[in-house]
Amino acid sequence: MYKSGISFWENELFNIKYDLIVIGGGLTGQSVAYFYKRSHPNARVLVIDRGFFPLGASTRNAGFSCFGSVTEHIADMELESEEKIINRIQRRYNGLKLLRETLGEENIQYEEPGAYEIFTDKTIYDNAVSHLELVNRWLVEATGVQDVYSNAEVNGFPSIKIELEGCLHPGKMMNTLYQKNLKEGVEFRWECKVDTIDQNNGLIKLDNGIELKSRQIIVAANSFTKSLIKEIEITPGRGFVFVTKPIQDLKWKGTFHFDRGYYYFRNVGEDRFLLGGARSLNIDVETTTEFGVNEIIKNHLIDFASTVLKLPEGWEIDQEWSGIMGFTKTKSPVLERAGEKCLVVAGLSGMGVALGMQLGKEAVEMIE
To answer: What is the pTM of this model?
Structure first.
């Protein structure tokens, strides 16, 4: 790579010490920048990201505004205590509320039709129904809302209705937050790959040789965190999503979950269908930071859409893509110091839309 060096003029303009540098321009990172700048209007705040757009999942997810299906909560009982699960639900619920209030529901194309978790296995369904009283109690403790989960049927499938869940437009979500940050005076540098971080002295070296200095650094790179700070245990998980061409008389309207939240689908507009997930089918291969399409999963989802969900014959994929999520062993996120001048927020475990802004705000509170 050709290194141009820094001119006299650039040195005077850009060779400054920032008050805060955020590594990662996704929802969490930009939320950090926004809330810090709102609290410290005179501070110099910089967000850097290695992508032309925020790389990861903030603009590459399915646009679900959700806090968890019954089978996901049941599966989580094997990972953590009841107290931790309730705390995680509370964070997700509060995060979605904060997101809508901060950005405005119209700006992010927010809708709240409620959601359904569908079932194809009677044993799994009966087990989920037997846990309704428990998970509803958790929601009351976490949110104060009664009867969120209830027994139902949708399109011929036994299901569990989930109140208060919705969907949004991830691109509009991120653009709204970006414009708010620009208005606050937050600076951005895109296509900047970090080479090393001096976590105790507030120094960042980019792979182009440029060095940046800051009083505080917050790493909000989620799935890519381990490449920057090796001691943080974050496991990447790739998610595949596709959107169909228009389908006449599309019967799936709303947001839907299946199999512990590993599958998710919804309508986009009046006649397009979005389907994603099935990472559990080939999870070792999908534990990667490499973007791409796993043909095994793609073909399985095509078959799932046709034979299980009964999309009409002749439907076609219009667009497909992947996003990279970051997971912890227990699914509880990481929010901790990684040096005197460095804080890490990561491991949103597939719930970035719900947790990103909430964790960004909590990170700011930790460094104030």
So the answer is: 0.94
